[in-house]
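Chapter summary example.
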Amino acid sequence: MGRGTEFGRVALVTGCSSGFGLLTSIALAKQGYVVVASMRRPEAQGALLEAARVAGVESSIVVKGMDVRNEEQVTSVVQQISECYGRLDVLVNNAGEALGGLIEEIPLSVWREQMETNFIGMVCVTKAVLPLMRANNSGRIIQLSSISGEVGFPGFGPYASSKFAVEGFSECLALEVKPFGIDVVLIQPGAYGTPIWDKGFSSMSSQADSPYQELLKSILNYSKRSAENAGNPMEVAKLVARIVAMKSPAFRYRTPFGTRVTMLAKRGLPERWFQRMILKLLARKS
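The structure predicted for these 286 residues follows.
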């Protein structure tokens, strides 16, 4: 089938200049995958290539410039994968950003940017790879969602909305593509220290006379405390590597342990109790 047997297994990972995407690319390359590592700004590939050099997997990493919001670029990269390798075994939809603020005060342009990157971009990439996976009657699509895809948190309305959309999309997708040998898996990371939150925090602001100033201050304090105690993002990369090696993975994974506890609380408590619990957490000073 094309040159697929010559190269072995092939993975496409989006958003690879830093964070989960960079670490996942290295983890998959160490498992023997040729990894097409895409990023919006290919000039930012230095950190990935240095990590690949240290890990001894430089020859397995192929960097491609690809903005997930640009359908022409996405189509071109997937076409190159088809022509060069004849197959795509794994897609890791990781590219995204976190934008925040208080809902009443967030401009519509921010909502559009958030949905365009985290949701529409993910849809664009997924649609582009499906014909290639379907032709091979195999493939695994791993969606880097978030605990924010099931738990709304004040101050992160745009981000949570985009991740709730990813969750619904993925549930529909899993049912549609299963008959064609394509598997879909969701990962819901909780608090991990990755660069995505730098922009998220910096985008949170309010007007001087905003009625939300005290709430925003509490949100920022809580979020920064969480970031300081965040888990090692390598845990997520290792989880992806384990999932691609499984014969029959679960549909949804939550990590770290605190994320699973949060979901148990949300499902086990009356909804109003859970909301009060979130607000009490915000009110804590340390």
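To summarize the output: The longest helix spans residues 108-136.
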